[in-house]
Amino acid sequence: MKFLGLNIKRLNRVSYILTLFSSMFLFVAVGLLLSAVITSIFGVYDSVNPDSPHPLGLLPFMALWFVYFFIITGQRFHDMNMTGWYAPLVLIPFIGFVFAILLLFIPGSSDENKYGKKPGKLLVMGVGKLDE
Questions:
Q1: Integer Cα distance of 130 and 110 in angstroms
Q2: d(CA 118, CA 113)
Q3: How far apart are CA 6 and CA 4, in angstroms?
Q4: Which of 16, 52, 57, 113 could be disulfide-bonded to 109 (CB atoms 3.0-4.6 Å)?
Q5: 101-121: pLDDT as tens digits
């Protein structure tokens, strides 16, 4: 297994949804922990709302998750035998909604396609195995 499933070429619908939410949880949790450490070292960032997380802890992990989102969305497009370069289109209003519906409801290729072997029943952040 490579780091966070970055060696996987395709993600099916269930694996995409589970990877999306588990990665969001992981990146936010680590960002909040780092934010707490930075707050304890440098002090409170916002005197009006002292319980708010420090942005220096959250922003790097939000940026990393954003990149990871594009990677896993590209893998989902690969499962549908489409290029991963469609991933940025998810951010465009209205068009992005159509692509999000496609990602969630259109099944992927049933066999091997030009992007690789069919993914296993369940891959979450790269944990699992490909069907052979």
A1: 13
A2: 8
A3: 6
A4: 113
A5: 989 999 888 888 898 888 777
